[in-house]
Write a structure and sequence with these properties.
4 helices; six-stranded mixed beta sheet; 217 residues; 21% helix; rod-shaped; 9 strands; three-stranded antiparallel beta sheet
Length: 217
């Protein structure tokens, strides 16, 4: 027995190798035990089945529109282009004609014309002696009253059918003179007619005549 013990002590290298082998075996066993406790990689994520109806996650590029770029701000109205408006052409006002101007100030009624013969050389009703110079004036009226300026008289004196004298007066009311002077027109006896054709600046017209006799005096 003493010989056996002495031989093991005589070989320390063998003892060291045996101890190292035991330690390595122990470490391998512990590592295998820890690996058995953790789940295999395939078991972490179960395989997908045909009944999985979860919609795919949208791509990162299909992001929701941002308020600053794609959507109008809550207090800001979306800009819409208005249709082009045609220029408005203002109607051209024509200058009123002279007739329209004069009509607006009255003078629209027909003229009333009267001839007033003078009394010089008068010897009876509607009778004058030869060589008389009675003279004649007019009285002309419309809706504004008696007319003076803007009123014109064309005088025509005839004896039978012959024109003895014709003159024009520039007004209808005598200022301080006689509008129509006979001069030597009544130097012969006969039946005379004095006619007054009146016009106005307001395009009114009127006519009046008076007939009288000239007899020897």
């Amino acid at each position: 027995m003493s010989s056996g013990r002495g031989s093991l002590a005589d070989h320390p290298v063998i003892v060291i190798i045996s101890v190292v082998a035991a330690i390595v075996g122990l470490m391998v066993g512990v590592k295998e035990l820890n690996g058995a406790d953790s789940a295999p990689p395939s078991a972490a994520a179960p395989p997908a089945t045909d009944t999985d109806m979860t919609p795919p996650t949208p791509a990162a590029t299909q992001a929701a529109p941002t308020q600053e770029e794609d959507m109008p701000a809550p207090d800001e109205e979306p800009h819409t282009s208005e249709p082009a408006r045609e220029p408005v052409t203002q109607p051209v006002e024509e200058e009123p004609s002279r007739a329209a101007v004069v009509q607006s100030s009255g003078h629209t009624a027909p003229l009333v014309v009267r001839i007033k013969l003078g009394s010089s050389g008068k010897t009876g009703p509607d009778t004058y002696r030869v060589g008389s110079r009675p003279g004649a004036n007019t009285e002309v009226y419309d809706d504004t009253g008696r007319l003076d300026r803007g009123c014109y008289v064309q005088w025509t004196l005839t004896r039978a059918s012959e024109v003895v004298r014709r003159v024009t007066s520039g007004r209808c009311r005598p200022p301080s003179i006689t509008l129509f002077n006979f001069e030597d027109s009544l130097d012969e006896p006969g039946s005379y007619t004095l006619k007054a054709d009146v016009t106005t600046d307001w395009r009114q017209t009127g006519t009046e005549s008076v007939t009288f006799n000239v007899v020897p005096g």
